[in-house]
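Quick illustration, no need to memorize.
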Amino acid sequence: MNTKIQTTESVLATIVLYNTSLEHSETFQSLSKALKSTENRVEILVYDNSPSMMYAGEIYDSWNIHYIHDEMNSGISRAYNAACNLAKKLGKKWLFLLDQDSTFPENTFHTYGEAMERGHTSLLAPQLFSQKKLISPFGPQPGKGKILKNIDPGIYSLHKVMPVNSGIMVRVEHFEACGGYNECFPLDYSDFAFIDRYKQTHTCFEVLPLVCEHQFSGLNAGSKASAHDRFNAFCRTTHLYRKNVDPATDAIKIILSRALRLTLHFRSPDFLKIALRNLLESR
């Protein structure tokens, strides 16, 4: 029997697309399936960072879709800030932040709804796994994360563990109060920079009994050409994060470690050359 979850009426979901159509997004597919077990219709902002439009205006029974095409690929930070602005206009109380490559179980909306009604914290997050490794939440270290073996559902300090972007449910008023996402970080370090802002006034979040699968971009190099561009951006953003957010970040170690992984993956010295050039330019 279908059930009505009252709390979803206060939610604006936001999914960020890049070169993947909405209907082929694993996130959209799995959440659409989860909504079929309810009588809910959820508002969603589809923020499309692709060069060409990845949504053709299809209508879905479970979704009320708002669409923004950003062919300049301004990044997820701008997308999530745009979602906050829309949520305020629509009178929503919660933002559900998503990327395109997470797979959510059928009890997703029930689980978030129960946590929202408990009201223990204003930031909720699932457990995300990639290649059988728990990637979120993780143990934060300066400029990088430490993978945990496991984590139990419950309330945690953001000074000890933190979530990645996809799957975060956050109260709109607290998102806005902390300044939202820092658009200087379009992709890499966007979650670090946001949590750094958020935890200045709200130090805890809740890990939900919700297990999801996630395609983590740091573990998926893609083509060599795209990896070159991605790594160049990573180098620049690492230096920016160290300079503007966390001076304890060991940019040299982080960049060389990423370069070595990519070098081994592609069997190419290009990434070490890119790393050395960026490190010399940053001096």
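Residues 127 and 211 are 5 Å apart (CA to CA).
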